[in-house]
Amino acid sequence: AVKRTPFIAGNWKMNLDHLQSIAFVQKLAWSLSDAKHDFGAVEVAVFPPFTDLRSVQTLVSADKLALGYGAQDVSRHDAGAYTGEVSGAFLAQLDCRYVIVGHSERRSYHGETDEVVGAKALAAVKHRLVPVICVGETAEDLEEHGPSAVPAAQLEAALSGLKSDAEIVVAYEPVWAIGSGQAATPEQAGQVAAALRGVVARVLGEEAAERTRILYGGSVKAANIAAFMREPDVDGALVGGASLDIEEFSSIVRYQK
Ligand code: PEP
């Protein structure tokens, strides 16, 4: 079987301006440089606001930090009359490796449909960015359809335009678990992650399913990360609130199985 490198991703949301991001990344790098953190063993990336990306790029490249980064959203378009949008080409020029697409906050506050999320995933891949495709059910969905039906349908739609060799990351983020302090149980996260791997297999093929990392997100903390990582289909975490606390985020990165 293919070995998937565990991936811990920090979604800063709309927090930390570019000056704060410089101080934060320096402190995070210092905290992670502890000998106990083996960067080959666990990959780490941060997702700052757009206005921070140039500062983060400068720090990461100057100090050769083993820290990935990416944006929280991307336009489905390459360039043109799309006021307020940011092209994947621009993100790639700033050496972003990743971009989040379809976060539940984009879906619910900005009306992003499965079709839009799929177009954004495609735009990301076109610009050689790895889309971190977020899917997840609301509390009502959970009651009505059970845990995996809605996220599986969202993922199927998001993958529909991609080729089998596309590199993607999937994040299962139950909406009711985001920022609520009420994480899913590791068993539930593991079951949905397995179902989502099945979707990747069906749409992009077995090989893609084997290598694609599937993250859990929703109230992940230092205290619960290890239990999620013990699930065979959970390959990492997308961390919101706790990614803004350097001690907490470093402890998450240093989880012990
Ligand atoms: C998120 O918004 O992606 C998230 C998982 O948030 P939190 O960790 O704060 O629940």
CATH architecture: Alpha-Beta Barrel
> Helicity level, as a percent range?
40-55%
- The percentage of residues in β strands lies in 5-15%
Q: Any idea of the CATH topology? A: TIM Barrel
Radius of gyration: 17 Å
- Unreliable stretches, pLDDT < 50, 5 or more residues? none
Q: Report the order of strands and helices.
A: EHEHEHEHHEHHEHHEHEH
Strand order in the largest sheet: 1-2-3-4-5-6-7-8
What is the CATH homologous superfamily assignment? Aldolase class I
Domain module tally:
1
Distance between the termini: 19 Å
Q: Which ligands, by name, code or SMILES, are bound? A: phosphoenolpyruvate
Protein name: Triosephosphate isomerase
EC number: 5.3.1.1
Subcellular location: Cytoplasm
Enzyme class: isomerase
Could you characterize what this model shows?
This protein has 257 residues and is α/β, with parallel strands linked by helices. It has one domain (7-253): TIM Barrel (Alpha-Beta Barrel). Helix content is 41%, strand content 14%. The chain is built from 11 helices and 8 strands. It has helices spanning 18-32, 53-62, 88-93, 104-109, 114-126, 139-145, 149-159, 186-204, 206-211, 225-229, 246-253; strands spanning 7-11, 43-47, 68-71, 98-101, 130-135, 169-172, 213-217, 236-239. An 8-stranded parallel barrel has the order 1-2-3-4-5-6-7-8, surrounded by 5 helices. The chain is globular, with a radius of gyration of 17 Å. The chain starts with 6 loop residues before the first strand and ends with a helix. The chain binds phosphoenolpyruvate. Phosphoenolpyruvate is lined by residues 11, 173, 178-179, 217-220, 238-242. It is found in: Cytoplasm. This is Triosephosphate isomerase. Belongs to the triosephosphate isomerase family.
